[in-house]
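SAMPLE LOG
Freezer: B-3
Tube label: C17
Construct: single chain, 123 aa
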Amino acid sequence: QVQLVESGGGLVQAGGSLRLSCAASGRTISSYAIGWFRQAPGKEREFVAGISWSDGRTYYVDSVKGRFTISRDNAKNTVYLQMNSLRPEDTAVYLCASSAGTLAGTPRWYDSWGQGTQVTVSS
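STRUCTURE (predicted):
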């Protein structure tokens, strides 16, 4: 099992930036990719971005392309999500998750989840 801990959330004004971190521990060798998801109150969990550990291949949802950048530090078993030009509609709890076999945009492919970190963007 992979354990994941998110950090870096907070309150920021529209147009501002935040960098989220997802630190992985435990059976990290079983992790093929890390995905960032977000969930706003009353809404379904939404895929934001993902990255594979081995070759750094990335995948973004259209609404964050050009604003968010996902990256990894294999030595630290940590994945980052740099979020720029934040908008009020980006407000949500952001969660990272580990997938054992694929880089996908749907939650069902991810088998380990962190507790999440709140991101609030004020207008």
